[in-house]
Amino acid sequence: MQNSQSRRQILLACATGMLASANGKADAFSIGKSIQIQAGEDLMQEHGILGRTLLIYEELADLFEHDKPDPQDCLPGATEIIIKYVQGQHERVEELLIFPALTKANALPDLVSVLVTQHKVGHELTNTIKKKTEQGSHKTKQGRLDLANLLKMFSTMFRPHMLREDTVIFPRLHEIMNEAQYEELSTKVQSLESNMVNSTDLGSILRQLEGIEGALGIHNLAKFTAEIAPSNQT
Ligand SMILES: [Fe+2]
Ligand SMILES: [Fe+2]
């Protein structure tokens, strides 16, 4: 068993980045802080990025369904985050390291099969969204409706996808591996991510996300707080 001191120390990618505070403004994050992060936490942070991008997709779908334009051409940026960060990094880690580890242990084969299929369908949907955007679909009423449908399809598929990974796939890794094996997997995940071509750190992606959220007016977390009507108050 390895003690915590011998575990890998990872320079948190967002150490030089900015994190959104509750009021939607960016706060400087401490610089150069070295922390330990393991595979599950790493991948769940990436799911956080995916989830916020899905919120952007859902906001754009709502605008398009009401025949409203993309206010500041936000869709290409959001699609780029999906292509480069979610599909180019996160899904590759799952397919190269996480799913094979489960398959080797004959764990959750049916679920892994569905998840892999959904990655592929996600790529097809994304290619179509990108192509339609480049062709200017968002500039016509019918094109906006088509895009809204595609964006909702993507979101509808990936919300349960990532939640199933968070609650079933990643926890199962602890059951099929001892601590040393899990440490080794965590190191491999970090190494693979940092060696990928066009590897993008969490801080850069967060800044990109915050810019798009700001353009859409969904950057202020307080805006999402439920307002309870007096008749529903106890
Ligand atoms: Fe996945
Ligand atoms: Fe995932």
CATH superfamily: nmb1532 protein domain like
Apparent shape: globular
Strand order of the largest sheet: 1-4
Largest sheet: 2 strands, antiparallel
Mean residue pLDDT:
86
Structural class: mainly alpha
User: What's the number of helices?
Assistant: 6
Unreliable parts: 1-32
Question: Could you say what the CATH architecture is?
Answer: Up-down Bundle
| Percent of residues in helices | 55-70%
Bound molecules: fe (ii) ion
Integer tally of domains = 1
* CATH fold type: Four Helix Bundle (Hemerythrin (Met), subunit A)
Total strands: the figure is 4
Proportion of strand residues: under 5%
The string of secondary-structure elements, in order, is EEEEHHHHHH
Query: Distance between termini?
Result: 52 Å
Account of the protein in words:
This protein is mainly alpha-helical and 234 residues long. The protein has a single domain, classed as Four Helix Bundle (Hemerythrin (Met), subunit A) (Up-down Bundle). Helix content is 65%, strand content 4%. The protein has helices at 39-65, 75-104, 109-134, 141-176, 179-195, 202-216, and strands at 10-11, 18-20, 26-28, 34-35. A two-stranded antiparallel ribbon has the order 1-4. A two-stranded antiparallel ribbon has the order 2-3. β2 and β3 form a beta hairpin. α2 packs antiparallel against α5 (179-195) and α3 runs antiparallel to α4.
Short description:
It contains six helices and four strands. It has 234 residues and is mostly helical.
